[in-house]
């Protein structure tokens, strides 16, 4: 992070988010009487694979309405390599199988990119997760019954991370990362059985 802030390297956090129209973004109403919330039929999905620049908060994306595969990851790597020509590029990714396969390794090697895989089950270390939460929060303010409007809204929000929403994204994505290095285990064996406890 410090090297990225001094301009020595470009540091990007990579992840995909899957926005399902008619499922995730209905909002909540609490009350004593039954209420009907307008929504749409079907479960059309808009997939966004993004690479978020840690310093500038610019988001580079590859999108579709089918699936994210290794092909989309390679396309994103090629776009990132073009955008940051002349810099050492480090990409932090999780261990999704479509991001950790031979075709991705070969593409990164050919482009001179450094892939850094975060430990399994550690979404707290992939700072782009905070951005996806922000995008989903923005989507929950309105009902969508047209998939093109839904996907265009997502594109508009993701394009604003280094512009209109940069100040807020800066507060979300900083050097403050939740680590668990100082945790003390209660017992060396977390899988101890009830009968062993009784003994």
Question: What is the secondary structure topology, with strand pairs?
Answer:
Blueprint (H helix, E strand, L loop, with lengths): L1 H4 L3 E12 L24 E9 L5 E6 L5 H14 L4 E6 L8 H10 L2 E4 L10 H12 L7 H13 L6 H7 L21 H5 L1
Parallel strand pairs: 1-4, 4-5
Antiparallel strand pairs: 1-2, 2-3
Spans where pLDDT lies below 50 across 5 or more residues: none
Q: Please tell me what the overall shape is.
A: globular
Strand content: 15-25%
Order of helices and strands: HEEEHEHEHHHH
Largest sheet: 5 strands, mixed
In the CATH scheme, the class would be: Alpha Beta
Question: How far do the termini sit from each other?
Answer: 49 Å
Give the fraction of residues assigned to helices: 25-40%
CATH superfamily: Ribonuclease H-like superfamily/Ribonuclease H
Structural class: alpha/beta
Number of helices: 7
What's the β-strand tally? 5
What strand order characterises the main sheet?
3-2-1-4-5
Number of domains: 1
Mean pLDDT score: 86
Remind me, CATH topology?
Nucleotidyltransferase, domain 5
CATH architecture: 2-Layer Sandwich
Radius of gyration: 20 Å
Task: Summarize the structure in words.
- This protein starts with a helix and ends with a helix.
- The model has no long low-confidence stretch (mean pLDDT 86).
- Helix 2 (70-83) packs parallel to helix 3 (102-111).
- The chain is built from 7 helices and 5 strands; from the N terminus they run H-E-E-E-H-E-H-E-H-H-H-H.
- The chain has helices at residues 2-5, 70-83, 102-111, 128-139, 147-159, 166-172, 194-198, and strands at 9-20, 45-53, 59-64, 88-93, 114-117.
- It has one domain (2-198): Ribonuclease H-like superfamily/Ribonuclease H (Nucleotidyltransferase, domain 5), CATH 3.30.420.
- It is globular, with a radius of gyration of 20 Å.
- The longest helix is centred in the middle third of the chain and has 14 residues, at 70-83.
- It has 199 residues and is α/β, with parallel strands linked by helices.
- The protein has a 5-stranded mixed sheet with strand order 3-2-1-4-5, with helices on both faces.
């Amino acid at each position: 992070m410090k090297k990225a802030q001094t301009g020595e390297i470009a540091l990007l956090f990579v992840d995909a988010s899957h926005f399902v129209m008619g499922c995730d973004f209905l909002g909540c109403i609490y009350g004593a009487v039954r209420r009907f919330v307008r929504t749409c039929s079907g479960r059309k999905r808009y997939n966004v694979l993004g690479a978020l620049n840690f310093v500038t908060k610019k988001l580079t994306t590859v999108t579709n309405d089918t699936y994210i595969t290794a092909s989309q990851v390679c396309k994103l790597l090629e776009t990132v390599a073009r955008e940051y020509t002349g810099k050492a590029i480090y990409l932090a990714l999780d261990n999704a199988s479509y991001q950790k396969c031979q075709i991705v390794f070969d593409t990164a090697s050919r482009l001179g990119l450094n892939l850094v895989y975060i430990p399994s089950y550690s979404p707290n270390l992939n700072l782009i997760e905070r951005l996806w939460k922000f995008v989903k929060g923005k989507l929950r303010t309105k009902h969508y019954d047209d998939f093109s409007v839904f996907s265009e809204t997502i594109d508009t929000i993701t394009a604003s991370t280094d512009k209109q929403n940069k100040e807020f994204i800066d507060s979300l994505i900083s050097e403050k990362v939740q680590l668990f290095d100082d945790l003390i285990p209660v017992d060396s064996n977390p899988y101890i059985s009830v009968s062993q406890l009784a003994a």
